[in-house]
Design goal:
Elements (H helix, E strand, L loop, with lengths): L6 E4 L5 H12 L3 E6 L2 H14 L3 E6 L5 H14 L5 E4 L15 H26 L6 E5 L15 H21 L5 E6 L17 H12 L9 E3 L9
Helix pairs in contact: 1-6, 3-4, 4-5
Length: about 240
């Protein structure tokens, strides 16, 4: 599947799944716009993508926990591109800790501000660019932590709260943007590994999550895939 010339914005793109997403789209010919809190790290990824080709890459600083930073990224992207075909809401800091009191208040505020408020503001400020696209998609990398009744992650309750907020945003956007032809695609993976064997007895890998994103984005415009839900590997003791 080639995606030549597609304008793709990826948040949290300097490492791990965000980086792999940016590389996967660029490998298929897309022009990827990488945002991250650490501009130098995003620049390194963009430089590697440019050397490898065939797609293009630009890097931006964007801290999702800072509304002014989100607005600045959207303004810079507007000046440089003029449209967005795919927005991938990937940026969200993981917060571990089963005990509510294990982490300081500031970490809780950052986790919810980045994943919940940050995702909402980024989508808001890039929506005008998506509306300029002939084939607009919004992809949300949420988490099984954002689904009702999921208790199998070691994530902190603040991470669960942030992911439920993202899920609520995705649901209403899918309903309200559908008449405009804007697809909202949300993924709810359990805790997964970046690299590992891709067989039935192993944990879900980032590569499989990315393959789902590419599949959904590559579908004809009459195909609205709203959600990907994943079976979680059961521990040996059941």
């Amino acid at each position: 599947m080639q995606l030549d010339g597609l304008q793709v914005a990826v948040s949290g793109a300097a490492r791990d799944t965000g980086r792999l997403l940016a590389e996967a789209f660029a490998a298929r010919g897309a022009h990827v716009h990488l945002s991250a809190r650490d501009l130098a790290a995003a620049e390194q990824v963009a430089d590697q993508i440019r050397r490898r080709g065939p797609g293009r890459a630009d890097a931006y600083r964007c801290d999702l926990a800072e509304p002014a930073s989100v607005r600045a990224f959207a303004a810079a992207l507007t000046d440089r591109s003029g449209r967005v075909d795919v927005l991938i809401n990937n940026g969200a800091g993981y917060l571990a800790g089963a005990d509510l009191g294990e982490v300081p208040d500031s970490d809780i505020v950052d986790a919810i501000s980045g994943a919940a408020t940050g995702t909402l503001l980024l989508t808001k400020h890039l929506l005008p660019l998506l509306r300029r696209s002939a084939r607009p998609d919004i992809v949300n990398l949420i988490s099984a932590c954002g689904t009702a009744g999921h208790h199998r992650s070691d994530a902190h309750p603040a991470f669960y709260a942030a992911k439920h907020a993202q899920a609520g945003l995705a649901g209403i956007l899918s309903h309200r943007l559908r008449p405009e032809g804007i697809r909202v695609i949300s993924l709810f993976p359990p805790d997964f590994v970046q690299v590992g064997p891709r067989d039935a007895t192993s944990d879900l890998t980032a590569s499989s999550v990315i393959d789902c994103v590419l599949f959904a984005v590559g579908q004809p415009r009459d195909c609205f895939i709203s959600e990907f839900r994943f079976e979680q590997l059961r521990p040996a003791n059941g």
